[in-house]
Amino acid sequence: MSISATARDIAKNATVVDQLQSLLESDLTAVETLLKARAASPVDIIPDLSQYIVTAGGKRLRPIITLAAAHAVGKAKSSTHALAAAVEFIHTATLLHDDVVDESDLRRGKPAAKSVWGNSASILVGDFLFARAFTLMVDTGSLEILGILSNASSVIAEGEVRQLAAQGKLDLPTEDYLAIIEAKTAALFEAASRAGALSGGSSEHADALASYGKNLGLAFQIVDDVLDYGGTTSVIGKVVGDDFREGKVTLPVIIARRRGKTEDHAFWARALNVETQEESDLARAIHLIRTTGAAEATIAEAEAYAGLAKSALADLPDTQWKSLLGQLADFCVKRAH
Amino acid sequence: MSISATARDIAKNATVVDQLQSLLESDLTAVETLLKARAASPVDIIPDLSQYIVTAGGKRLRPIITLAAAHAVGKAKSSTHALAAAVEFIHTATLLHDDVVDESDLRRGKPAAKSVWGNSASILVGDFLFARAFTLMVDTGSLEILGILSNASSVIAEGEVRQLAAQGKLDLPTEDYLAIIEAKTAALFEAASRAGALSGGSSEHADALASYGKNLGLAFQIVDDVLDYGGTTSVIGKVVGDDFREGKVTLPVIIARRRGKTEDHAFWARALNVETQEESDLARAIHLIRTTGAAEATIAEAEAYAGLAKSALADLPDTQWKSLLGQLADFCVKRAH
């Protein structure tokens, strides 16, 4: 399939998220109120730092999925709002800790919270938001939901540790890469979808929505990883190369290296070692990822997971939610083009 | 009262903890089994790092309090074991993050986990154990207990942030110091005692045991803070000066500075600024804390809280547990002598 997006595609894609945000307007307003109220603290740094990252231009993708999953099988209630806010807090806490772990100075083009308030404050406010996420989940009144999200939280941490151990490991098997992103990213999408369905009032489709969430999360992260190298064309204004500079071995690199010549192997070995990496290496890495077709192959992998996400929805009641969740899976992949 | 411990006191004190450990032997064995089982992960760094810190010579004071609170009003059940393990995991997670925040190379005289595995692994394994603590609490089947511990967890993080903001703040009011240690230390003792009582089967004495835990935690931390300056006499083999080197303004410093001469003020200002601190400053700080009587005054403050802890137990059923919890409060203070 074509890898360049037409203007019509872009307009259509924007509409999926717009439509979801519009349909979920009252739910999302309730979630925003909770995000603000539950980050409150007499210790100023906490709400300041929290608001900085919580309002840093995130699309609220995880709350949207949580709420839409509830609507797809029943109805979002006030307990669903608490759940959606909890999911966003868990996500925010992991971002704060990731920035410290990855030594990233920027997050979505803005200085990372740790660049403004320091590593210590980022670690501790992450802990605070994580704890508040659990208080929010207690408000849902469901031990089952607490079990799902506490389990997902330990899986996320496990994935992050595994990613840390895989840093610079050039022969990382694709399966290990997928296991890492399934844990660090897809587990929260999966938990949000499953818990959203349960919170919406039905356990009948909880497994299906969990599968949707997991595959969507995989597609989402694979696309993120190829976008870090500019996708198939450089995206102007998009900061690229973070993963590369951190020596993260992601799918575009795995494929480019596998398809590359012997001299490329030596290049990857030197360039993905943060000690020996040179300024000009990123441009060559991008060149190799493009010329070996690794970018397209990576996107094809993401498309496969997006397809699995859509298939998982097959038995859901035919509502606009089912349709929009399906379109959302496409949207997650199309942003790579 | 006398500030030097007699041999008889020491023997008696050792017996309190020994007695509790002996009486709680089967409960503590169950807790240890959970601590090991729930730190399990296919990602080797996680159990390795967890076991390193979980078995690093801690006395299991928080699990002991949790279990004893349950027995004091009812009986420790398997859900109490899960709770006690959860409390220890929360404590362990905060230690891992504290070592990164405080840049401490040692913990209980051994290299800190972060000195062995690095900051990133310490942050992420802390997150993992924190998540596993919540999974353990889901196993207790009590939303009330989850609410108590999730709230305590956010209060702990709040206290740590507040402590961070107070670093080097020489005019820190005593009330602010107490608010910090109440949050960062006493909140977990309080939550463990309250939740322990509820888990034991009675809400009747939960407030009393919560008050016991809070005051015990305050006494415990105040004693820790004076021990960091060697107490009233240097303790051989005890590493001192960590707080001082980090510019932490604790009660012995607040009192010594308040009672000191003008030239001492200038000394404290320079010495508690980590940028201008000199090697020989710790010895002078210890000297000033002793000669102004700040060490004794600090211990007297701890004794007052230990007294409040014991008073809180007044209406509890007269059992050996009530007696031992009372003696434990004395023990926490006596280690300062």
From TrEMBL, chains A, B:
Keyword Glycosyltransferase: no
Pfam families attached to this UniProt entry: polyprenyl_synt
Gene3D superfamilies: Farnesyl Diphosphate Synthase
PROSITE patterns on file: POLYPRENYL_SYNTHASE_1 (PS00723), POLYPRENYL_SYNTHASE_2 (PS00444)
Cofactor dependency: Mg(2+)
Keywords: Magnesium, Metal-binding, Transferase
Keyword Transferase: yes
Superkingdom assignment: Bacteria
SUPFAM superfamilies per record: Terpenoid synthases
Homology family: Belongs to the FPP/GGPP synthase family.
Record-given protein name: Octaprenyl-diphosphate synthase
Organism the protein comes from: Henriciella pelagia
Taxonomy of the source species: Bacteria, Pseudomonadati, Pseudomonadota, Alphaproteobacteria, Hyphomonadales
Gene designation: ispB
